[in-house]
Amino acid sequence: MQKILMVCLGNICRSPLAEGILTSKVDSDLVYVDSAGTAAYHVGNLPDKRSIQIAAKHGINIRNQRARKFTEQDFDNFDVIYAMDQSNYKNIKSLARSKEDEIKVKLILNETHPEMNDNVPDPYYGGNEGFQNVYQMLDKACEIIASKL
């Protein structure tokens, strides 16, 4: 089974969406998808209501997710770790214990724009339009990821 982890800062906006989107595109018997945050601000909380709403608008239910913090153990538990932006990418890599750990960490938008190192913007302080834009970015990236699995 392929195991993929989506990571943003608080695990309530971007990474829960990425988890839900990719989960909807793969066979759950072959691929396991989870998400986490590099900070512990929202541990145990549901995704942001705007993430829940935009996912539901596209037929994806993320209401059962709960925020959790990324840990070193995630390097052992996952084959690929997708960071939503460069700041979280650096934070994750700083926890890597080996080259094998480091190789697992990727920027998710490099799937749609290779080597551009673009960030998925954090929509938390924006309006609903920001969540729709983030959804579209993640949907394209997850489509490519799913096609490679």
Radius of gyration: 14 Å
Largest sheet: 4 strands, parallel
CATH class: Alpha Beta
What is the domain total for the residues? 1
The main sheet orders its strands as 2-1-3-4
Hey, roughly how much beta strand do the residues contain? 5-15%
Taking the alpha carbons of the first and last residues, their distance comes to 10 Å
Structural class based on helices, strands and sheet pairing: alpha/beta
Poorly predicted segments: none
Q: How many strands?
A: 4
> How much helicity do the residues have?
40-55%
Instruction: Tell me what the CATH architecture is.
Output: 3-Layer(aba) Sandwich
User: Could you say what the CATH topology is called?
Assistant: Rossmann fold
- Mass-distribution shape: globular
Oligomer description: single chain
What is the number of helical segments per DSSP (H or I, 4+ residues)? 6
Query: What is the average of the pLDDT values?
Result: 96
Helix and strand element order? EHEHHEHHEH
CATH homologous superfamily annotation: Response regulator
